[in-house]
């Protein structure tokens, strides 16, 4: 069996929220490079992502929806099923952030973040799971958590609360749905240059403090087609320091082990829940390197296992 076969998602459909830019776009492209057709959900049509996905030879459909309201969840899933026949993979990536001291944080900012990051994520999980069971196909759900699910952070109380809740919700859903053929996992990326981190990167003091904690001394970036061509499961990635190549090799071996063993074994990631399907992947903690590669690679591996 070839490496491409190990990471093949041909014939499957992935629904990815927040795929316009950044991590969401990278995950959508990684899944497309592995063979999946993509349904992207967001406030606006992701034209760049659509062009890049179609360039891989995969089908693409976008659904414009306000994820600040969970009332659209069932309709989003139904549209995806009507267009491609099923949803095999859900990636809850969409997220927003509001910054202020906890003493001054407003109820409006709290609700805005929780509605997008947590409430819509749960009800999309629920709608997708119901459809998976109705179609008797099973499937994979991947929630995007954060390092702040573990570290707390400062001045982003609603974001930290939402991402901590995502980790807990993932464990619970994995416990409830594993026996039904639905695997639920979460990925906690490191510091990535996205729209949500613009304020941090623009703040000279905070940017310097963050870079001091990253061995490669730079933010992770989504970009470049090299990985998509060489290694389908690690599409559109760049590692930032040559001396972390051993980490990259270990990750690749771990992902292959995860693909070969159902459910995940201890080699496949940082196990948090005792349930076989429940796994949260804080890759920065595992590898001590800030690289976007694990996010995309793990998304593909998780979608396959």
Structure description:
By secondary structure, the protein is of the alpha/beta class. The chain has one domain (8-304): NAD(P)-binding Rossmann-like Domain (Rossmann fold, 3-Layer(aba) Sandwich). It is 47% helix and 12% strand. The chain has 13 helices and seven strands. The chain has helices spanning 3-6, 22-33, 47-55, 73-84, 107-135, 148-151, 157-177, 198-202, 204-212, 226-230, 245-260, 283-287, 293-304, and strands at residues 13-17, 37-42, 60-64, 89-92, 139-144, 182-188, 279-282. A seven-stranded parallel beta sheet has the order 3-2-1-4-5-6-7, sandwiched between helices. Strand 1, helix 2 and strand 2 form a beta-alpha-beta unit. The longest helix is centred in the middle third of the chain and has 29 residues, at 107-135. It is globular.
Number of helices, counting only DSSP H or I runs of 4 residues or more: 13
Computed structural class = alpha/beta
Q: Which CATH class applies here?
A: Alpha Beta
The coarse silhouette is globular
Please indicate the count of domains: 1
Secondary-structure element sequence? HEHEHEHEHEHHEHHHHEHH
Strand content: 5-15%
Number of strands: 7
Distance between the termini: 16 Å
Give a quick set of tags describing it:
305 residues, alpha/beta, 7-stranded parallel beta sheet, Rossmann fold
Q: What is the structure about, briefly put?
A:
This protein has 305 residues and is an alpha/beta fold. It has helices at 3-6, 22-33, 47-55, 73-84, 107-135, 148-151, 157-177, 198-202, 204-212, 226-230, 245-260, 283-287, 293-304; strands at 13-17, 37-42, 60-64, 89-92, 139-144, 182-188, 279-282. Mean pLDDT is 80; it is low at 224-248, 256-279 and 281-293.
């Amino acid at each position: 069996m070839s490496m491409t076969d190990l990471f093949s998602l041909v014939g499957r459909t992935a629904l990815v929220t927040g795929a316009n830019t950044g991590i969401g776009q990278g995950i959508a492209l990684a899944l497309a490079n592995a063979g999946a057709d993509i349904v992207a959900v967001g406030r606006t049509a992701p034209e760049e992502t659509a062009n890049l996905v179609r360039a891989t030879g995969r089908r693409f459909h976008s659904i414009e929806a306000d994820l600040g309201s969970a009332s659209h969840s069932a309709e989003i899933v139904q549209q995806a099923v009507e267009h491609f026949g099923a949803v095999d993979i859900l990636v809850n990536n969409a997220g927003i952030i509001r910054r202020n001291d906890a003493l001054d944080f407003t109820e409006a900012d709290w609700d805005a973040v929780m509605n997008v990051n947590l409430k819509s994520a749960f009800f999309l999980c629920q709608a997708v799971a119901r459809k998976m069971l109705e179609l008797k196909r099973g499937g994979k759900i991947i929630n995007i958590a954060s390092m702040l699910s573990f570290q707390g952070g400062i001045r982003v109380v609603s974001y930290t609360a939402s991402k901590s809740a995502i980790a807990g919700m993932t464990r619970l859903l994995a416990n409830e749905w594993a026996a039904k053929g639905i695997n639920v996992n979460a990925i906690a990326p490191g510091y990535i240059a996205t729209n949500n981190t613009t304020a941090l990167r623009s703040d000279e003091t905070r940017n310097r403090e963050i870079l001091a904690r990253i061995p490669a001394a730079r933010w992770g970036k989504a970009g470049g087609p090299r990985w998509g061509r060489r290694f389908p499961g690690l599409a559109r990635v760049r590692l930032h320091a040559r001396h972390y190549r051993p980490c990259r090799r270990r990750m690749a071996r771990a992902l292959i082990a995860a693909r070969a063993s159902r459910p995940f074994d201890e080699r496949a990631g940082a196990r948090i829940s005792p349930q076989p399907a429940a796994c949260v992947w804080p890759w920065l903690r595992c590898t001590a390197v800030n690289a976007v590669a694990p996010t995309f690679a793990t998304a593909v591996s998780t979608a396959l296992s």
